[in-house]
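Appendix B. Raw example, untouched.
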Amino acid sequence: MLEEQRELKRKPVALSVTLGTEDKDARPCKVRDLSLNGVFVECDQTNLSKDNSVELSIAIGKGKQEIRHRVPARVTRISKDGAALSFRKVDMDTFSSILELLYVSKQ
């Protein structure tokens, strides 16, 4: 998808996450970029295909301030180095944490 077609621009972010699939296969991934609507993760995309439902587990913050968020998502694109995911439901705490990460913190 071209940058001009995105609703919201993505920001480069370095986070380690876990990506879980419906068959409970969890794999470590690294976030390459993030927006309020989705994320691109660098990972082994074996057994992933477009429109798969997945769950992203993201730890935001540091030390005692770290909060783990679980976000249901859908695979929108697969590439040789990872997958683009579109968030399905984001609760208010997760939304606030992503907003802070995108617009407040100097990640």
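End of appendix B.
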